[in-house]
C-alpha cells in the first residue's frame, strides 16, 4: 500500500488558501524563514521498527488492528508515514525481531519509499528461544563469561547485518543492572560491561559509531549498569572515538535537567544521538512533546546552539530517532504527532535570536534571556513546518489525510484485526 | 511615582501598526475573539505584598535596589504594575509585615491605583519579637494550647484587619509539621490543627472565605500537617461551607498531576484559589510559566471547563494570586512576566474547542483529544492578550515600557540602592 | 507436596542451642516479650495467588521452574510457605486467573494447609478472550455504559465466588486513567467510577468490605482515576461504611510520607488493608523490607499506635497482604523474605516505648523521640520472631530449610522446568 | 568548659554491668570483633564549624540558646562532643565565618581537645560586606572575569589559612548555576568554572587535595554548574590527580542510587570525601541515619568493600564529615546522634560476610546476597560501638551524659539565651 501523489495533492489543494495566508503572515513577521525551511527539509527522524504496533505494559496490551506482521510491512508503514510528512525517511531495526531474509530485496523496498537504514539495535534484554544462556542476570555485565560472550557475539552479528543494509551505527541499550542491594558488585559489573563493549567496539567497521544508551531504572529496580550520562560518558571515553552517548528523554531520574546534559555531552564531543519521547513518571514512552513541550524546545535550543558552535550539520551530525510506545493511540497517528512536535521544537529553536541571547547572558539580564526564549516558543511555528512539508511533497495535514484516506481501515482489511507486530 | 497616561500612549503608538496587523490576522483565524477579550479584561491577578522585593534562600539573598520599604510603597509598586498590564488590580497583604497605621489612607491610596484588597495572609511560621510563645514546633498543631491560642488569636486579628480593608478571605498557610520520624503524633497534630481552625472559622464574617493551603514539604522535612490536597480537603470539609482548599503550584511531590487535583476540587465545590508560580524541584517559586508552560495551560483547561460546568464566574469565582520569589530578576519585571504567562495560558484555554474535545473524549479518540489541546496551545495568543491590555489602557509591551521609563532606576533614586522590602 | 513435621523438627533441633541462647538474652533485655510473641503468633499475612510464579516487566520475563500451573498448586505452594513460617495462613485469589471448579474441594484443600481465603481481587485491567467489550480505555470509568456494566458484573461475580470460598472482602484495583492530557474529563471519569462502585457496593453481602486501592501511575502514564489516598478516601466516604482505602506501598509519588497517610486513614476509620512490597522508583514490587526497612518500621509504628488507640485487633482489624513481583528470585524464597521483614518490623514497632514516646512528643523533645524509635529499630528482633515461629511449629530458619529440603528442585521435578504460573 | 574524666567514669560505671553483658553476648555471636573495634577507634568524623548553632530555612530560624559566638567557642563545643563520643576529633572551618586571629592559639586550643583541622571550606555563595563584586550570578562560573578572579583569590586565601592551621584539603561547594532557562550558556559556565578551578588547583600545596562538591539544585532552581557526580568527575579529571569528587548525601535527584555512585568514584580513584546527613525531599540536612538508615549502611558497604579492594585506609583514605542543619534539635545532641548512626552503619558494614557475599554474587543467588546484607544490618551493633567508645575514654551513652551534666544549660549560662552562631 502506498499513498499516491495525487491523493496528497488533492488534500493540499483544499488547505492551500488558508496555509498561504498564514505563511505569508509568518514571512512578514520573521526574517530568514527560507534558511529555516531548508534546514527543516533536510531534518529526518528515524522510526524504530518496534513502534509500528501497539505497545503495552506488564499489565496488558490492547492490540489495535492492521499491525505489520513482518519487516516488509514495517517498512511499508514507515513509507506511508514518510509520504505524509516527508520527515521520517529512515528506519531503525531491532535484531532479532527484524532479521531480513533477502537483504537486497529489503534495501530495494526501503529505497522505493525513500527510506534509509538508521542505527541498528541489539537485544540482550530478552531470552530468545534458541539461546544457550539466559540474560536473567544481565548480558554484557554478567559474572559468567559465557553469557557475556553470547551477548558480544549477538552485537557483532547485529553490526554484520547493519553493514549488509547500509547502516552505520549500533545502539546498545542494556537492561543490565540489579533489583536488590548486594546482588551486584558495581565495579565488577562495570568492568565486565566495559570489557564486553571493547570487544564489540573492536568489531566496528570504519565510519561506524556505537551509541551507549543510559537508563536510570526499569527493568532493573535497584541499579542500572549504564544508569546515567556520567556512566555512559565513562564507557564512551574509555572505548574510544567511535563511541558516543545516546540520550533517551525518558531515561532519567525525576526533575533531571536533560538540556544541560545534552549541552555538556556536546562540549565533550560525545553526544551521539537521541531517542525522542515524552514522559511524566518514568520511561513512559509517550508521544514526543505531549507532556513537556517546553522541555523539548529547550533541548533543541541546546542542540542548535551547541552543534552550530561545533560546526556540526544538524541533519547528519547526530542520530535522531523516536522511541515511543503506542498503548492507546493508533501507532501511525502517534508517530505523526511525535514527528510534528519535534519539527516544531526544532523550528522554534531556530527562531531564537542567538545574538540577543548571548548579549543578555553576558549582562546577566535574566528576564531578557527568558523573553528571548519565550518569544521563540510562543511563536506559532506550524505554518513554517507545513511549508517545508508541502515543498517536499508531503501533506498539509498528515494526520487528517491519514484519516481521510482510511489508511488504518485498509491496513486492517489487508492484515486483519487481531494482529501483533513482531517483537511486541 | 505613577506612570502617566501619555507615557503609555506614546509607547503604544509606536507599537500600533505591528499589533494591528497581528490582531487582524488573529481575528480572521479565530472566531469569537471578542468574548475572549471581554473575559481577559475582567481577569485580575492579585500580587502579594512580599513579592515586591528580592527574595532569597537559606544560603543568601542578593538584594536589588529600590525595594519598597513600607506598605505604601508596596501599593505604589503594584500600582505601577497594574498601570502597565491592567491585570494586577489587587494586593494580598501579609500580617504582621503589612499592618496599616491608617486604614482609610491605605484604602484610599490603593483605590487611587485601582487596586482591591485580596485575601489576607497570616504568619505563624516565624516568631515575632514580642511574641509570648514560639512556633518552633508548630502553631495551630502545637501540643501546647497556649501556643495554639496565640496562633488562633493572630489569625482572628488578621481577619479583623482584612475587614477594615475590605478584604473577604483569609489564607492560612501553615509550616506546621515535623522534621523527624516520631516527633509528632500525626492524628494528634491533625486534631489540634482542626480545632484551631474551627476557632478561626467561627470568627469569619459572613461572606468571608478561609483558604487552607497545603504543602508537601519545607520548612519541615519529614511531615507536613496540611501536606496535600487530601488533607486540605479533609479540613475544609470538616470546617464547613466557608472553607476551601488553596492550590500553590509549587507545593506538590515530584510528578504530581496538579490539573487533576484542580478538577476534583472543583467537583467537590472546595477549590478556593490559586498561588501561581513555577518550579522544577520543589517550592522553587519561579516566574509563572517559566518552566512548565504546558502544565499551566492544562490547569487553565481544567479551570475553564470546570468553572463553566459549575456556572462560576472566571474572574470572581476563585482567588487568583501570584506567590513567587524573585531571587535573580527585578521583582516587577518578574511579576510582569508571570502575569503575562498566566494571561496567555488562560487565553489558550479559552481557545480550546470544547465541543470537539467532549466529542473526542466520548469516542476515546485520544489522538484527536491531543490535537485539540495542542491546537489551542500552539496558537500564538500574545496579540489577543495585548489587545485586551490596550483596550483597558495598559501598555503594548509592559516590560519594555518599564525599562524605557527607567522605573527601577527612579525607584532606586528615591528609595536607595541598599534596600530590603519589609518582611524579607 | 507437603513439609513433614519431623523435617521441621530435625531442622529446628540443630538450631536450638543458638536460638535458646539468643532468646534468653533478649528475654533479659526486654520486658513483656510474651505479650509480643502472642501477637506475632496471631499475625497472618495473606499471599496473593499471582505471587507464586516469576514476574516480569514489559521488557521480558525470565521464568524459573516448578511454577504452579493451577489453583491447587498455588494453594500447595502457600501451604509450603505457611508450614515453614506459620505466618502466611491465607491466600488472596485473583479472578479470572483462579476460578475454582469445585469450591468444596478447594476449600478443603486450603483448610488442609491451615489456609483461609483472604480478600478477592477482580481484574478489569486486561481483556479476557471471551469478553464483549475492551478495557483499553478503562473499565469502571469508561464513557460507555456497556463497558462499565461488564466491569461491574465481573466484580459482582467475584464477590459471588468469594462468598462460596468464605472470603469477606473485595479488593478493587483499577488501572483506569489516561495516558495523555485531554484524553479524559477527570470529573466525568470520577463520577462514572463512583456510580460503578456504587453498584458493586450494593452487591456486597453483610459483613463484607470493599477495598478501593489507589495508585499514582502505571499502566496509565498521565492520570489515574483512583490516583492517591485523597481520591480513594473520597470514593470510600461516598460509598459508605463498608468501603475502605487499601494502601499498596509502591503506589505513591516519589518521597511520599506513607506512614502519615496510614495514620490519617486510621483516624478517619477508613484504612482497610495493605499490600506490602518495597520499591525505589515506582511500583517496583520488590521484596518487602529490601529497600527501605526503616519506612516499613515507621508504618508499623503508626499501625500499632493507631489501631491500639482505636481498639482494633492487630491481626483481624485490617487486611494484610503481600503484593510483589519476583523477577529475579525464587518466588517462595522471596515471599519468605517478605514475611520475615514484615514480622520484624511489626515486632520492632511493638517494642517501642509508647509512654516515653508520648511524653517526649508532649515536650517537643525531638532528639528523644528519635532515640526512642531508633532504640526499637536497632534492636535485633530476629530471635523474637523466631521464637514465635518455633512455638507454632514453624522452622527456625525457613529459607534455609526450604533449600535443605530441595523444595524448588522437587517442584521442578513434578511440574517441569518451563512453567508459567497462570495469570503471569 | 570541659567534661572531666571523672564525670565520664562515673556515668560509665553505672552503665557497666548492662554493657558488659551485652558485649559478652555479641563477642560470642560474632567472630573478629577486636579487629572491628580497632577500626572503629581510628575512625573520626569531622564536625563543620557551622553545625554548632541552630540552622534555619528561608522561612525562619528558631534559635536555641548557648550557641558559640566565635571560633574558640565552636572548638570548645566540638571538644565537648569529642570528649563524649571520641569519634569527632576534627573540625572543618568555613571562611570567612571562622577566620582565626591568632593561628597558634587556635591550634593549641584545638589540640587541647584532641582536635585536628579537617578540610577548609570556602564561601562564594554569599556576598560579604566589603566585597568588590557580587556573587548574585555565580562566582567561578561568572561571565565577568573580575568576579571569577575575586572568587579564585578567596579560595586561594582559604588554602593559605588552611596551611597555617595544618589542614590539607579544600572543599569547594559552588552555588553557581541558573534559575531560569536561557540564563546561562551551560558550556560557557562549565568552561569558566573549569578555568577558575585550574587557578585554584595551581595554588594547592603538595599533599593537598581539592574536593569538588556537586549538588543537583538549591539555591539555584534550574541548573547547577557542578550538578551531579558526572559533572564533578569531569572537573576532577580535567584538573588532575589532586582533585576529587565530594559526595553530600542530600545533593541528589529523587531516588538516586548513591551507593553505586560511591562505588564508581572509588573505581575511578576519584572519591575524595563525604558530607553525611539525611533527607527525604532535597538537601534537608537532617541527622545522619534518621530517615534512611539502610541507605547509609549500603553506602558503607560500598566504602568498606571498595576501599579494601584499593588498599585504602578506612580512617584516612577519605575525608569524613558531617554537614547537617539543626533546626529543631539541640545541635550537639543532633551531632551525637549523627555520629552514632554513622558508626553503627560502618560497624554493620564491617560485619558483612564478604567472602559469602562474593560467592553468592558469582552464583547470582540474589536471595542469599540479600540475606547476607540483612544479616549484618539486623545485627544490633550498639554494644560494639559502645565498647570502642569506652576503650578510648568516651561515654557509655553520650546523649544521656550530655543531659545529665546539663551541658546546654551551662552553655546558656555562660553564653546567653539569645545567641546566633557566627555564620548562621
CATH superfamily of chain A: Divalent-metal-dependent TIM barrel enzymes
Q: What is the molecular shape of chain A?
A: globular
Radius of gyration of chain A: 22 Å
Which oligomeric form is depicted?
homotetramer
In percent terms, what proportion of residues of chain A is strand? 5-15%
Number of DSSP helical runs of chain A = 15
Protein name (chains A, B, C, D): L-rhamnose isomerase/sugar isomerase
GO molecular function (chains A, B, C, D): isomerase activity; metal ion binding
InterPro entries (chains A, B, C, D): L-rhamnose_isomerase (IPR050337), Xyl_isomerase-like_sf (IPR036237)
Keywords (chains A, B, C, D): Isomerase, Manganese, Metal-binding
Amino acid at each position: 500500500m502506498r499513498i499516491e501523489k495525487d491523493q496528497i495533492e488533492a488534500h493540499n489543494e483544499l488547505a492551500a488558501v488558508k496555509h498561504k495566508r498564514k505563511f505569508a503572515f509568518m514571512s512578514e513577521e520573521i526574517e530568514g524563514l527560507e534558511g529555516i525551511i531548508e534546514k527543516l527539509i533536510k531534518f529526518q527522524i528515524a522510526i524504530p521498527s518496534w513502534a509500528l504496533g501497539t505497545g503495552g505494559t506488564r499489565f496488558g496490551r490492547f492490540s489495535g488492528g492492521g499491525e505489520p506482521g513482518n519487516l516488509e510491512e514495517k517498512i511499508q508503514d514507515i513509507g506511508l508515514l514518510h509520504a505524509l510528512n516527508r520527515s521520517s525517511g529512515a528506519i531503525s531495526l531491532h535484531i532479532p525481531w527484524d532479521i531480513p531474509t533477502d537483504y537486497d530485496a529489503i534495501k530495494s523496498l526501503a529505497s522505493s519509499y525513500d527510506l534509509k537504514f538508521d542505527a541498528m539495535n541489539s537485544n540482550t534484554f530478552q531470552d530468545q528461544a534458541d539461546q544457550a544462556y539466559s540474560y536473567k542476570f544481565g548480558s554484557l555485565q554478567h559474572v559468567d563469561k559465557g553469557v557475556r560472550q553470547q551477548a558480544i557475539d549477538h552485537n557483532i552479528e547485529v553490526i554484520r547485518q547493519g553493514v549488509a543494509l547500509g547502516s552505520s551505527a549500533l545502539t546498545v541499550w542494556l537492561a543490565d543492572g540489579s533489583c536488590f542491594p548486594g546482588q551486584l558488585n558495581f565495579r565488577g559489573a562495570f568492568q565486565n560491561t566495559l570489557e564486553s563493549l571493547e570487544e564489540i567496539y573492536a568489531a566496528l567497521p570504519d565510519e561506524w559509531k556505537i551509541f551507549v544508551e543510559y537508563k536510570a531504572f526499569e527493568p532493573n529496580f535497584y541499579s542500572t549498569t549504564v544508569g546515567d550520562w556520567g556512566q555512559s560518558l565513562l564507557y564512551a571515553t574509555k572505548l574510544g572515538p567511535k563511541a558516543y552517548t545516546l540520550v533517551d528523554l525518558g531515561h532519567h531520574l525525576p526533575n533531571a535537567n536533560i538540556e544541560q546534559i545534552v549541552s555538556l555531552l556536546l562540549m565533550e564531543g560525545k553526544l551521539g544521538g537521541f531517542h525522542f519521547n515524552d514522559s511524566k513518571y518514568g520511561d513512559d514512552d509517550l508521544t514526543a512533546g505531549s507532556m513537556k513541550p517546553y522541555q523539548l524546545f529547550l533541548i533543541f535550543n541546546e542542540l542548535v546552539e551547541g552543534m552550530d558552535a561545533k560546526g556540526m550539520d544538524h541533519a547528519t551530525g547526530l542520530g535522531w530517532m523516536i522511541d515511543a510506545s503506542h498503548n492507546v493511540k493508533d501507532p501511525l497517528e502517534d508517530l505523526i504527532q511525535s514527528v510534528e512536535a519535534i519539527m516544531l521544537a526544532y523550528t522554534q529553536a531556530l527562531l531564537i535570536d542567538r545574538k540577543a541571547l548571548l548579549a543578555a547572558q553576558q549582562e546577566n539580564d535574566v528576564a531578557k534571556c527568558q523573553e528571548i526564549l519565550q518569544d521563540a516558543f510562543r511563536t506559532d511555528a506550524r505554518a513554517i513546518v507545513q511549508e517545508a512539508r508541502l515543498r517536499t511533497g508531503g501533506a498539509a495535514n498528515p494526520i487528517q489525510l491519514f484519516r481521510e484516506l482510511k489508511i488504518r481501515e485498509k491496513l486492517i482489511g489487508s492484515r486483519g484485526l487481531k494482529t501483533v507486530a513482531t517483537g511486541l
